[in-house]
Every structure is written in structure tokens, then in C-alpha cells.
Amino acid sequence: MKILSILELKLLEREIISYADFLKLQNLGSHAYRVYTIPKRKAGNRTIAHPSSKLKECQRQLVSILEMYLPVHESAYAYMKGRSIKDNALVHSKSAYLLKMDFQDFFNSITPKILEQHFAKLGVTLPFHELKVLEQLIFWNPSKKKYGKLILSVGSPISPFISNSVMFFFDQVMYEICTKNNIKYSRYADDLTFSTNKKGLLFSIPEIVKRSVKQEFNGELVINDSKTIFSSRAHNRHVTGITINNDGQISLGRQRKRYISSLVYQYTKSELSEEEIKRLKGLLSFCYNVEPYFLQRLTRKYKLNIIDDLLRKGTKK
Questions:
Q1: Chain segment 294-308, per-residue pLDDT in tens
Q2: Three-state secondary structure along the chain?
């Protein structure tokens, strides 16, 4: 297999980058990132490593090539065309009992070693030199050392695909175990969700998951135990940010609805910054996808032209 040859042909034929730039990225691509932090939803900051424009174009073309060789399991819902967090939540909407788990530092824990092992399991053979070049094009070097540890970055266009594919065999194991036991399983990036209508059936799953993760990744990936949560219809159930009501319907949740309504009110009073307006526009689009009836109530309360303006333009009137 000659992935680099195909990539070079795509890049140079379409004049995306020069041959000199391509050679430079093959040697130092893992250093070609702009690094910054953004606040996490609850606490702390998330480090974002954004590739240079030339590396980004290279990674986009590389994804289109690797998709022919690296599979993604049907249980994966994140970064998949035609799928969303709504679809992920709907998998579990009719189940009475829910288990949520996730990985610790998911993207940053995925290394060239994991990708090489994935290639090997798939029977994909690459020359040593080609593997090393692919590492430079796919992974980020967070240190200033030339040969520092390489990891997947949050912010790279190739990271979602690589993370989904290296989870293929783990997803397959989980899917088979769950199917045999009438449990529904889905994965949205680092979020694992299991659900069933049989009481007590999910209590054995966390140990099965941790054992499977250890077997598959040899300790490179680990479960964040503090985020393992069991819930049922007796309590609020949430799947990737979406609330599941007791009648099995998905919802934005009361708190988010109040927040969106307050932002729309502030918008009518011209009290929002441009950044807040962008945030509101995203929330309204999310609302349209998850619970359009709430959007209809907003349009009646604040007048259609205001909501229309936000969804279409995202700028103040």
C-alpha cells in the first residue's frame, strides 16, 4: 500500500500545497500547530492544538484516503455523516435503565502505537518509513523536543476519524456482548452509553468495559471512573447533553430551555455581545434539531422575525 504516494498525487495535482511544503510536513508536521485553551463546560480548561492551514489541508486529504482502509463501527455516532447527538440519544430513549461511562483524556491518549496496532489487526502493512511519516502528518507533538511524545490533538480534522477507527474492535466487542444480553450500546467520541429495560442488568458492565479496554489498549486508554453514572426513569436521564423524559421522548431539559429563553429576551433588548449572539444561534439550531416545538413557542413569544433573524444571520437587528 502506498498511502503517501496517493496523498502526494492529490495534494500536488490540485495544487493544494507545494512539494517543498509537503516534504517539510513529513518531517516536522507534528510541530505545525497553534496551541490555545478554552474553558471546559464545568471546570478547568481544554487545550486545543490547531494545525497550520497547510497541515490541515494535508490531513483532510489523508482522511479521504484512510477511509478506504480503516473501518468505523456502526455503534459510533460522533463525527459520522448523517448522525448527531440526537440520534445517539434516540438509541436509548425507550430504555428504562441507563449507564454512562467515558474515557479519561480520550484524544490525547491515542498515540502512534495504538494506530500501528490497529493497522496490524486490520492486516494493513506499511513500510516503516511510511508509518513514521504518517505519524508526523496525523499526530501532535505537545513538547518542544524534536522526538517528543506524539498524541492526537483536539482541533485537528483528522483526529475524529482516527479516534473512531481505532475504537473499532472495542466497539465490536461491546456491541456483541450487549446484543447477546439485550442491552443497547452506543459510543459518542469518549462517551459510552448502555441501556436496557431489565433491572440490575447493567451493574456488571463497568468491569466488562474496563477489562475490554485493558485487553484492547494495554493500559494506553483508561476509563474515568468518576464519570460512571447509573440512572433510571426514577431520575433524570441524560445522554450526550439531551434529556430523556419518562415517556421516552427526548428534550432540551428545563434548565437549558430557561437559559435559551433568557438569551432571546436579552437579544430583543440588544444586550448580547456578538460572541453571545453566535452562541445563541448555535443553541437555536440545536433546539430546532432536538425539540422544534420549543422553538415554536419561542417564535410566538418573541415574534417570528426575531428568531428567523437569529437562525439565518446571527446578527442584531
A1: 888 888 888 767 777
A2: CCHHHHHHHHHHHCCCCCHHHHHHHHHHHHHCEEEEEEECCCCCEEEEEEECHHHHHHHHHHHHHHCCCCCCCCCECCCCCCCCHHHHHHHHCCCCEEEEEEECCHHHHCCHHHHHHHHHHHCCCCCHHHHHHHHHHHCECCCCCCCCCCECCCCCCCHHHHHHHHCHHHHHHHHHHHHHCCCEEEEECCEEEEEECCCCHHHHHHHHHHHHHHHHHCCCCCECHHHCEEEECCCCEEECCEEECCCCCEECCHHHHHHHHHHHHHHHCCCCCHHHHHHHHHHHHHHHHHCHHHHHHHHHHHCHHHHHHHHHCCCCC
- Grid look-up 439565518 returns 312
What is the pLDDT at residue 42?
67
CB atoms near residue 55 (< 10 Å): 27
Average pLDDT estimate for 50-79: 96
Cα–Cα distance for residue pair 221/106, rounded to 1 Å: 7
The grid coordinates of residue 241 equal 447533553
Kindly tell me the burial class for residue 264, based on how many C-beta atoms sit within 10 Å of its own C-beta (0-12, 13-18, 19 or more).
buried
Q: What is the pLDDT of residue 97?
A: 96
**Residue range 117-150, pLDDT digits in tens:** 999 999 999 999 999 999 999 999 999 788 899 9
**Cell numbers for 140:** 501532535
Rounded to 5 degrees, φ, ψ at 270 are 60, 40
In this structure, what DSSP letter does residue 43 have? Answer: S
| Cα gap 312→306, rounded to integer Å | 10
Residues comprising the chain, all counted: 317
- With cell 490555545, the residue in question is 36
- The pLDDT of residue 316 is 43
Rounded-to-integer distance, Cα 175 and Cα 110, Å: 21
For 178-235, the pLDDT digits (tens) are 999 999 999 999 999 999 999 999 999 999 999 999 999 999 999 999 999 999 987 7
